Amino acid sequence: MTDEPTADPTMTRIGEAVQLGQGGAPAQARELLTALWDELGRTGDALHRCTLAHYLADLQDSTEAELSWDERALAAASELTDERAQRYSPALQVQAFLPSLYLNLADCHRRLGNVGAAREHLTRAREHLVRLPDDPYGESIRAAVRDFVEDDPTDRRR
Questions:
Q1: Residue 49 and residue 72 in contact, taking contact as beta carbons nearer than 8 Å
Q2: CB distance 121 to 105 below 8 Å
Q3: What's the pLDDT tens digit per position in 50-83?
Q4: How far is 130 from 145, CA to CA, in rounded Å?
Q5: Which is the most buried residue in 1, 44, 55, 90, by most CB within 10 A?
Q6: What is the SS3 string spanning 11-67?
Q7: 34: number of Cβ within 10 Å
Q8: What SUPFAM superfamilies does the database record attribute to this sequence (predicted)?
């Protein structure tokens, strides 16, 4: 068994849109991901919905819209199984998604001035840190959780 992702046309489309956004075309990326979301629908494949919503959140113009997409990502993760995730990539574990998803929610709530909700989501992110892999991704999320300032709406570190 290989750790290489299995061909998945939808994940490929998501990845291409993400690259557009990271390459300086966030509006185009947002448009492509929104159209793909409409194709998937609210009951589409949970891996696709979780991944798409997670990335689409970062492309929003308002914190409220970002929060809505982050909530969709977490909801999709709650429907996602390791078996499904591992059909795409054998190393994936759904529980390892949760620290980042909760941290994103904490960040949105902090920026909106919802300190209590920010603390609650930060606590949940901390509770799931043990699920992260010991690799650069895992360390980056651990560092972001460690450095998070929950009651400072100007803090944009992540």
A1: yes
A2: yes
A3: 999 999 999 999 999 999 999 999 999 999 999 9
A4: 12
A5: 55
A6: HHHHHHHHHHHHCCCHHHHHHHHHHHHHHHCCCCCHHHHHHHHHHHHCCCCCHHHHH
A7: 15
A8: TPR-like
